[in-house]
Each structure stands twice: as C-alpha cells, then as structure tokens.
Design a protein that fits this description.
three-stranded antiparallel β-sheet
Length: 209
C-alpha cells in the first residue's frame, strides 16, 4: 500500500476518506483504533482475505515481524497520541460517536503501564458510564489494570498475567471470588465462577520474532 501514497490521486482519496467522518477528532480516533489492533486482530482479518484460487496456487501471506519491545513501543506511541488528543477534546461518548469509536480510548489505555495516567482518566470513564454513555466493563477492566500496575490484587477479575516461559495466561492475583462478584454485581457485570477463575488462556502471536 505504501506506493499508493505517492500517486497523484492519493491526496484526493485521503480527503474523501476524512470527509466521511463527523470531524477530525473522530478520524484520528478511528486511525488510533486501527493502529492499536494492527498486531492484534488485523493479521487474522488479512489472512482470511486470502484463499486458494486453484491447485497450483502457492500464495502465502506473511505478516510483518516485530519484537515484543517494538510492539510495546507502538503501544506507548498510541497512548501518547491518545493523551495528546484528549487534552483538547472531550472524552468520546457512545451517544456522539457510537460504540466502536467511543471504545478506542479503553482499547489503548488497556495497554497503559502509567498509574497516574489511568488515575486521571478513570473518573471520566466512570462519569460517562453513569450517564449510560460508556460500558462499565471498560471501567472495571482499567481499575484492575491500575491495581496490577500497583502490584495490588485486582477487584473485578479482568486481568491476566503470563505464565513464565509459555504462551499461556492465568488470572492475575485477586481478592476473594465472592468479593469480586459483589463488585461485579454493583455495576451489572457478569458473575465469575470457579471454573472461569482458574481458566488458562493461550495466545500465539505469529508476528513476534
């Protein structure tokens, strides 16, 4: 796609895309959403666009490879861009931008390792939730993320930690199951059972070097 940027029609094409958004803020949030998902779900979607045309078809899709440090760096860049955007724009609500765009800050902040930054945004997310303009699961997940950064037990049970030397993940340390479920009930969130609490999840990222 890079060569397309240097063709004469590219700027007109770009202008047409931008005009399809409500404003520049929405365009930038959507761009950030795609940046955040580039190495998480884009690979899956692109692979499913490919298929065999015939018996002699040998096409193979190879997603660009990156290191974990490069991936972390990309996440940090997205967080910085989001933070800069929200300095001059209000936190996006579902009423104004729809669920998908309004979820962008949550998706990006879920990779944040800065406790102060999360503490700054959690009250804004809670305020939107109280107005019915955001999802309580976003608030609960980021509250658990904050606890994880502070090395404290999570209170809702949405965070996982990697099992050393594997591609498997288990629930990050937490308060008692009964107390977590009380916290979940308070915000109308799905109740956890023991099986879910002890579930091991595996993730294989084929783009990692």
């Amino acid at each position: 796609l890079v060569p397309l940027h240097f063709q004469n029609q590219w700027e007109k094409f770009k202008e047409k895309i931008i005009k399809s958004y409500k404003n520049n803020f929405e365009f930038k949030l959507d761009s950030l959403k795609n940046e955040e998902s580039r190495y998480r779900s884009l690979e899956y979607h692109l692979e499913h666009l490919t298929s065999l045309v015939g018996e002699k078809d040998s096409f193979e899709f190879n997603f660009p490879m990156i290191t974990q440090n490069q991936w972390d760096s990309l996440d940090n860049q997205n967080i910085k861009c989001l933070n800069n955007l929200l300095q001059t724009n209000p936190f996006p609500s579902e009423k104004e931008y729809g669920e998908e765009i309004a979820a962008t800050p949550f998706s990006i902040l879920s990779h944040c390792k800065d406790a102060q930054l999360l503490q700054n945004y959690l009250p804004k997310i809670k305020e939107l939730c109280l107005k019915g303009e955001s999802q309580w699961i976003y608030y609960a997940t980021l509250m658990d993320k904050l606890q994880m950064i502070k090395n404290e037990p999570q209170e809702f049970g949405y965070q996982y930690e990697r099992i050393k030397d594997t591609n498997s993940y288990k629930k990050y340390k937490h308060i008692e199951l009964s107390e977590m479920n009380k916290n979940r009930e308070k915000y109308g969130l799905e109740i956890l059972n023991n099986k879910e609490l002890n579930e091991i999840k595996s993730f294989i990222f084929t783009h990692l070097k």
